[in-house]
Structures are given as structure tokens and as C-alpha cells.
Amino acid sequence: MKRIHTQEKEQFKSLFKQENIDRFEDRYKILEVFLQTERHITIDELLDLLAQNGLRYDILFIKDTLKRMCEFGFARENSFDNGRVRYEHRHLGQHHDHMVCTKCGTILEFENHQLENLQVQIAAASGFHILQHKMEIYGICNSCFKDRVDHMPLAAAKPGDRLTISEFTGGAGSRMRLMSMGLRVKDELEVISNLNRGQVVIALENKRYVLGKGLAGKILVTRVTGKVHDPSNPAGPEEVVSMPLSEISEGQSATILRVGGNGALRRRLLEMGLVKGSDVYVEKYAPLKDPVELVVKGYHVSLRVEEAAQITVYDVL
User: Fold this and answer.
1) Which of 49, 247, 268, 313 places its Cα 20 to 30 Å from the Cα of 253?
2) Are 127 and 165 in contact, with CB atoms under 8 Å apart?
3) 235 or 249, higher pLDDT
4) Last residue of some domain: 223, 253, 281?
5) Rounded-to-integer distance, Cα 190 and Cα 162, Å
6) Segment holding 16, helix H or strand E
7) Are 313 and 280 in contact (CB under 8 A)?
8) Residue 50: enclosing H or E segment and its boundaries?
9) Ramachandran assignment for 127, one of left (phi > 0), alpha (psi -120 to 50 degrees), beta (any other)
10) Model confidence pLDDT, tens digit, residues 141-193
């Protein structure tokens, strides 16, 4: 990377002097600071980096310099999905795509030559010649997903979630009310429904409870960790993080851990091949996210999202 940056600086000197760009020395210093970071940065973040290096320029001058850097191919401008402009290095002969976390904003770069070749093949099959392209994948990064899995208020849970109560928050009154209902820290519960009108229905030890959203928001929960037995693993059952099938995204696959639901629904799901240990692939969601199209044991299966929520899965890929 050091060699590439040296080449970039030499070409910057040659081109900017050849084109008689004004204030060359100042613009060159901005390039040097820009090359110090591998992040996708905003103009404000570049201002901070420049200040840390003892350099202070008018923001209009920095914007103009970045614009020229993009014109000459030293930088690339990206907006992603929130419209906020960010800049990254543009090294000749190199191409990468992006994965963007919609929760924390982390931007991850990735390269995949098989994917690049497939895009060319798809375009060629349609008689289309690719000039340029970009791919942006939006989702949740590993850190945010772990935070979401590990700790959340009951009010944010989804039907089918199996959870453990980790803490009661709020005042003494709400805690006493919850305990008087029979709820205790470390109790395991299942979310039956989470209705828009402000009620969360849960099941605990064969008993149903109806909680208002306010009270449910004062119960912090963690997802139940399932145990899966692998005969090849002499250490015994392995702990895995489980989640409802309805929460995994298009293009992801998982393994079924358990099938819930009432008697008739559960029988129907089992008859469709949705049994413990089976691999399931989420092919697509309908435009309004319901139903969801699955592939199980080579067969295509369509489920309502509320039905998919009754199926708990693990090993999501």
C-alpha cells in the first residue's frame, strides 16, 4: 500500500502541475492527509484529520480539492443510502464493493472475483457491455448483530422469540408489579405476539401473560441459547445462538433447531419437511414481506411470516 500511495503522490504532482492547478502545495498536503486513512470519510472528518496534522483550510477549498481529486481519479465519492457524501481512495486497477451496516454505519470493503466474472457473464447474456458498476449490500454488521442478539427490551422482541429475563429496569413499583405477576430474572419465556396496539403476549411455564408495551420495555431479555448435539464432537452439546426463521434475510440459510406453534400448525410445518436438523434457505420475501419463499430439501415452500416465526433456527449463513 505504501508503494501505491507513493505512485499516487507522484502522479498527483505531475497532473496537477501539468494542468496549472492553483495552490498546488496546499492541495498536495490535503492529498497526503487523505491517504493516511483507509476509512470512507466525510469532509468534516477530513477537516479534523487536517487539524490534527496542524493544517487549517477553508472548507470551500477542501471541497474544491476533493472535487478535482475525483475528476483526476485519486478519490471516489459515495453517498450510500443516507445521502451523506463520503470519500475513499481510488487506486487504478483495483475494484471493490461495499457492505454497509444500517445500525452503526460501518462500511466494509470486499472483493470477489467470482462475483465480478458472474456480473460480466450476466451482462453478456443480455448483450450488455458493462462500463462501470457498484454493489452496495445493506445489513447489520457482526458487532451490532451480537449486541442485538445479546441484550434487548422485551418490547422489541418478535413472535416466536425464546428469551431469558436478564434484568428489570424502571422504578421499584414496576419491578414489584412484574415480580407479583410471577416473573423472575433468569426465567425463560416465549413471545406469542407483539401487537401494534401496545400489547406483548408471552408464555412462561404454560401460563400466558399480557403486558403493555411500557411495562414490557422495562424487562431486559437475552435470546435463549440452544444446545445442539453433534455426534462427532466428544465435548458434548454445543451452545448456539438461535433466532426465529422470520428474522433471517433473503439469500441466507440456516438449520432448524425447533418447530413451535399450536398442534395443527406444528403438524403442517412438520409435514412440509420443516423438521429439526433440516437446512432451510430463504429464497425471497414478497414485496410486502409476506409470505416468505423457502427451499427445504430441494422443495419450494411458502409460509406466512407469522408461521415462519414459529420456527427457531441457528447457524445462519
Assistant:
1) 268
2) no
3) 249
4) 223
5) 5
6) helix 2-18
7) yes
8) helix 43-52
9) left
10) 777 666 555 578 888 887 777 888 888 887 888 888 888 888 888 888 888 88
Averaged pLDDT for residues 259-273: 82
The amino acid at 14? S
Crossing angle (nearest 10°) for helices 59-71 and 24-34: 80
- For residues 191 and 196, what is the distance between their CA atoms, to the nearest angstrom? 14
Joined grid coordinates for residue 53: 496534522
Cα atoms in the 13 Å half-sphere on the side-chain side of 242: 26
Whether 201 is covered by a domain: the verdict is yes
Instruction: Report the C-alpha gap between 239 and 227 in whole angstroms.
Output: 5
pTM of the predicted structure, to 2 decimals: 0.37
Task: Encode pLDDT of 65-106 as tens digits.
Answer: 999 888 888 888 887 655 678 888 876 656 667 687 766 777
Give, in order, the Cα–Cα distances in Å from 302 to each of 211, 267, 290: 32, 16, 9
Look at the chain and report how many structural domains it folds into. 4
- Percent of the chain at pLDDT exceeding 90: 5
- Ramachandran angles phi, psi of 72, nearest 5°: -90, 0
301: CB partners within 8 A, 6+ apart: 272, 273, 274, 293, 294, 295
Query: Where does a domain end: 140, 170, 204?
Result: 140
Vertex 244, ends 242 and 250: CA angle to 5°? 105
* Same-domain check for residues 201 and 269: no
